[in-house]
Every structure is written in structure tokens, then in C-alpha cells.
Amino acid sequence: MRLFAISDLHLASAPNQQALEDLPAYPEDWLIVAGDVAEKFDTLDWAFGLLTYKFAHVLWVPGNHELWAIPGREPPEPKGVQRYHRLVEIARRHGVTTPEDPFLRWPGQLPQDVGAAEHLILAPLFLLYDYSFRPAHVPLDEVVSWAEETHNVCSDELLLSPEPHDSRIAWCLERLKLADRRLSEEIPQEAASILINHWPFRHDLVRIPRVPRFTPWCGTTATRQWHVRHRAYAAISGHLHTRRTDVIDDTRFEEVSLGYPRQWDQGRGMASYLRRIL
Length: 278
What we know:
By secondary structure, the chain is of the alpha/beta class. The chain has one domain (3-276): 4-Layer Sandwich (Purple Acid Phosphatase, chain A, domain 2). The protein contains eight helices and ten strands. The protein has helices spanning 14-22, 41-54, 64-67, 80-93, 143-148, 156-159, 168-186, 226-229, and strands at 3-6, 26-33, 55-60, 104-105, 119-124, 191-196, 232-237, 244-248, 251-255, 275-276. The protein has a six-stranded mixed sheet with strand order 4-5-6-7-9-8. The protein has a four-stranded mixed sheet with strand order 3-2-1-10.
């Protein structure tokens, strides 16, 4: 029994859809999907159906693309919190574990390097971002215009509504408080955790030289030490489309994006981009 992870499937692209269809079955293994599966509800529904057929269990957290409400669609799409709850409903219909569900205890064998932990808790999170991944000299109220100078403004500014919250910052703060409390209360002291979020947990893990001013939409400094605070064996994220593994304080930080068709080798197939976590 193994635990794999992948993110940023971006199934609006036909080659990525085909790659998912061609993905072999892993009937004994679990899969983490760390967001940005698709923008449309029906595509997300199709993907969950296929993934839960191929894997024994699937855990999912939303990315910004799932939260986009595209203008002009009829009937008008739900936005903000209402949209997020609709996404959770779709996932639950397929038995997919979401950030709104109880954390799961890993039922498989523990890795030798887990230390004294008696078991591992898998914790899907939905945290958003608060623009704190910006240079110190850039004021918050100027961050969008600063990014616009190099055409690095995230489409979230147009498509990701925070309603009924006043801002994405306010929504992020609410999600942070909820997640931090749950992690503190629901992970026993004898357990280690695997933290799962679409956005990276630390600013120093964001390395995107082609879009250097995109960083404000990449996370929050509030989670910088969560891997220590919540005894993380691993921290899984996507969003950056920069696949890599970093180790900080003995915690593995795994960026597990697939990305757009031009960003991965289609000849290798999607299976080769599944990151083995356990």
C-alpha cells in the first residue's frame, strides 16, 4: 500500500485529460490531489469518478482554478464560499476526502524515518493566501500594481471571489484559524502529520524566476512554521508548476504539480509524475 501525490492536472487541456484516462489503475494505493484539477464542475466530477476508480482512496484540496467563477456562463456560477461548498459536495459524492472532512489516519506501514511517531495523520487543508509573500518594500495596497508592471498579476483578481467575505485576505484568515485549531486538537501528540494544501507553506520554497512578481498569490507567511508546530513528516503542495523536493527541519516539502501540457513530458505519461510520499 502506497501514498502518491499530484496536483495541477489542469484538465481543461485535452492532452492532460487523455493522460488521466491513460493512467494505470492503482487499486491498493491512495492518492493526494493538491488542487487545480479543473475550472468546470462537470470536469471535476468526471475526474473524481475516474480517480476513485483507479485508486483505493483519494484526498483532495482545492486550488485557485477550482474556485474561479467564469463570467458570462449561464446559469451564473456560484462564487466564493458558496462555490467552495459546491466543490466539496461534488468530491463527497465520489467518496473523496476534503478539507471539510475528518483527518485520516494512514492505514499502511509507517516509514522508518518517521521517528517516534506511532501513526501518521493525513490533513487536507484549504488555506488560500494573504499577499504576505511580497517584498518588504511593497505596501499591501500597491501589490497588484507592482505585479502589473511585469504582467504578473494572477487571474484570481478577476475570477476568484471571496464573497461573502470582504477580501481574500479575510477568507484566508478565517481558514487559517480553522485549520490551526483543528490540527492542534485532532492530531494526537504521539502522531506525526502530512499537511496538504494547494499553496506552498513557506515563502522560501517559491522559486518562479519567469514570473517573479507572482509570489503574492502563492501563500501566507502564517504557515512558515506549521511543519514544526504540527509535527509534519511531509508537507504537500502544488500551484507553482515547479516539481521539487526540499527538506527543512527534517520535514519533506513536496511540490507535486503536473502543469500545462508544455510543462511536462507527455511521452512519459502521467504515472511518472505521481510523487511517492509513503
